[in-house]
Design brief:
alpha/beta; 2 domains; five-stranded parallel beta sheet; about 400 residues; Rossmann fold; eight-stranded mixed beta sheet; binds cytidine-5'-triphosphate; about 35% helix
């Protein structure tokens, strides 16, 4: 999502400077072009050479340096940038940016930037809590800055409290949230289901499946990045929850049904990627079931079909997308589900294909609607998520 994006990484004076070297490297790995601008004081902590080696670009410190590959002036640099990220942002630099003070390369560049600006403060807790800093942060927020709050923890000065630079993943998530995608789902409410359900047998056992929730989580994240207000209803999984979405955690098919149906009517789009159990044990034993001699049979009863229930209760204009996991007759079976469940699109995948299905980071899917079929090559689940949203956006437009 940051591929080809031009990022100014502003580095101001803090012991957390070394973390911006990791940040620069992570941005480069994501395919971004990174131009580091340091304050003079920051060079006491880390040398410009470190960033030059990591980014392949001359690190800027001096406003009057003319020896640079793109035009040196802070103005042309500001025009080049898709985003300007100041991490770490010291109390001093925050104060200057809040008041339009431009007395070095970093602050002049920031003042000239009209691209999205983000700041990740890092400082001692008392400096962070000082009313002057609080006011400066509020001013910056009002001026349109996205602030990535520092974390609490053990600080370099020995204090424990808020002031640690937010971790790399959090900063990158914020950056992606701001510039990662066109906001073509702005104002849309999207509900996504993901992960497996667990159907209890007794206090120690349950029936479930191999779903890790990765596909649904990727869709929830992509929908958020594209501007939607996202609710993610998820079964139990180890997959890290996407940031910025409203997460509703459930365990059983019954709980997922209730979580979805109580919210369905408010949604514009429902995308059901969860692997919901079709059957649950008829009775949940109150105590652990003890083994007996001989074999045993487990009576099962049907769960509610959540997607079909949402399809039956759908309101005009609502878009419903389901998933279909098959091991044979994928297209034929998936088409049947599309009709039976009264939905607009079904994303079919074949568990037998390598690179598709549970647990892996890729998927191979076919997007099926009443009058179309689009087979996609093997893509990362993030890419598949974007393609699904592209298809939904196109259908909604129609
Ligand atoms: N689904 C659901 N509630 C269920 C079962 C499935 O909402 N009780 C949804 C899934 O989230 C998915 C779609 O229905 O979006 C199809 O799921 P799948 O397991 O492929 O098909 P089933 O309808 O369960 O049919 P079968 O198991 O016979 O293939």
């Amino acid at each position: 999502m940051l591929q080809g994006k031009n990022i100014i990484l502003g580095v101001s004076s803090s012991i957390a400077c070394y973390k911006s070297a990791y940040l620069a490297r992570a941005l480069i790995k994501k395919g971004a072009n990174v131009q580091v601008v340091m304050t003079k004081n920051a060079t006491q902590f880390l040398t410009p050479l470190t960033f030059e080696q990591l980014t392949g670009r001359k690190c800027l410190v001096d406003t009057f340096d003319r020896n640079f590959e793109i035009k040196v002036e802070h103005i042309s640099l500001a025009q080049w940038a898709d985003a300007c990220l100041i991490a770490p942002a010291s109390a001093n630099v925050l104060a200057k940016m809040a008041h339009g003070i431009a007395d070095d390369m970093l602050t002049t560049t920031v003042l000239a930037c009209d691209c999205p600006k983000l700041a990740a403060p890092a400082m001692n807790t008392r400096m962070y809590e000082n009313p002057a800093t609080r006011e400066n942060l509020e001013t910056l927020r009002r001026h349109g800055f996205t602030l990535v709050e520092p974390e609490e923890g053990f600080l370099a000065c020995g204090d424990v409290g808020k002031g640690k630079l937010a971790n790399e993943e959090v900063i990158l998530d914020y950056l992606e949230a701001v510039i990662g995608a066109e906001k073509d789902f702005n104002g849309q409410r999207v509900l996504v289901t993901a992960g497996p359900t667990r159907e209890a047998l007794d206090p120690v056992r349950f029936l479930t499946n191999h779903s890790t929730g990765k596909m649904g989580y990727a869709i929830a994240k992509a929908a958020f990045l594209r501007g939607a207000k996202v609710t993610l209803v998820t079964g139990k999984t180890e997959t890290p929850k996407p940031r910025f979405v409203d997460v509703v955690e459930v365990v059983s098919a019954r709980q997922m049904y209730e979580a979805v149906m109580s919210r369905a009517s408010e949604q514009d789009i429902l995308i059901m990627a969860a692997a919901v159990a079709d059957y649950r044990p008829q009775n949940i034993a109150a105590e652990k079931i003890k083994k007996m001699d001989g074999d045993s049979v487990l009576p099962l009863e049907r769960t509610d079909d959540i997607l079909a229930s949402a399809g039956a209760a759908r309101r005009p204009g609502q878009f419903l997308c389901g998933f279909s996991m098959e091991t044979e007759h994928m297209l034929e079976n998936s088409r049947k589900k599309l009709e039976k469940k009264n939905i607009d699109m079904i994303v079919a995948n074949n568990l037998r294909q390598e690179g598709a299905g549970f647990g892996v980071d890729t998927n191979i899917v076919t997007l099926i609607t009443k009058d179309s079929e689009e087979s996609l090559p093997m893509l990362s689940k993030d890419e598949v998520a974007m393609k699904i949203l592209d298809a939904i956006a196109a259908r909604i437009k129609e």
